[in-house]
Amino acid sequence: MERVHAILAEHSRRIDGVEQIVARLGHIEALLARLEERLSGLNNSMRIWVSLLTMLLGGLLAVAWRALEGG
Predict the structure, then answer these.
(1) pLDDT at 70
(2) Angle CA(65)–CA(71)–CA(54) in degrees, nearest 5?
């Protein structure tokens, strides 16, 4: 009987460990979702900056081209 109690205690301990792993995985999943949202926001910001810099560079090249043409 003592051995049965020891086996049950060990199984209970292992089940608790698995439940903790599941809870931690849920927490990690939530953190990854937040990270994905932040990266998406950064990606949108980068697109805006790239567009602005491209327009600025295009304008500077146009001004330089006209200056070289003598106009």
Answers:
(1) 80
(2) 30
Neighbours of 35 (CB within 10 A): 10
Residue type at 55 in one-letter notation: M
Any idea what DSSP says for residue 41?
A: H
pLDDT value of position 47: 95
> Tokens 């937040």 belong to which residue?
34
Residue type, 10: E
**Dist CA 27 CA 17 (whole Å):** 15
Which 8-state DSSP code applies to residue 1? -
| CA–CA dist 57, 67 (Å, integer) | 15
**pLDDT for residue 71 is more than 80:** no
Alpha helices in the chain (DSSP H): 2-69
Question: From CA 17, how far away is CA 32, in angstroms rounded?
Answer: 22
